[in-house]
Amino acid sequence: MGSDSDLEVMKSCIEQLGSFGIEPIVRIISAHRTPQIAGDFAQKAAENGIKVIIAAAGMAAHLAGALAAKTTLPIIGVPLISGTGLEGIDALLSTIQMPPGVPVASMAIGRAGAKNAAIFAVQILALTDKNLREKLADFKKTQEKKVIQKDSALQ
Questions:
Q1: Who contacts 90 (Cβ-Cβ below 8 Å, separation ≥6)?
Q2: The model's pTM
Q3: Is the pLDDT of residue 83 over 90?
Q4: Domains assigned to the chain
Q5: Residue 105: phi, psi to the nearest 5?
Q6: 3-class state of residue 54 by DSSP
Q7: To the nearest whole percent, how much of the chain has pLDDT over 90?
Q8: Which of 82, 123, 81, 78 lies closest to 104, judged by CA?
Q9: Residue 22 pLDDT grade (very low, low, confident, very high; cuts 50, 70, 90)
């Protein structure tokens, strides 16, 4: 996260990862205020056992791109609403407008994006982890059942 003010929204991401048995490393790292720390984190992430990075930031939202520039790991960006009055559109545009060769997968703005970032990370990790594949399949079935139950309640 770019700031401690992002934690409230990112709790949904942390909790979603936890539901799959993943305990994430959670850090506050700013692309602008701690650029050296951000670069070091990204450069050492793979050797530290990290396989996917979720980067959440608002306003200029350069964290995901700054990390992507320093690693070959997949980066998932979560644009957040800041106090600018732009409702996160500024962060969304900053997250998705990456130059060729430095990709960032971008989620929706805010809490829904944070939750989807966790699920997308699990999808990536499940490519090489049978246990996660099974948990992901169960998750999808549960999602389906919830919708069917809600539909049935209307009938």
A1: 58, 59, 60, 61, 82, 84
A2: 0.95
A3: no
A4: 4-129 (3.40.50.1970)
A5: -80, 125
A6: strand
A7: 95
A8: 78
A9: very high
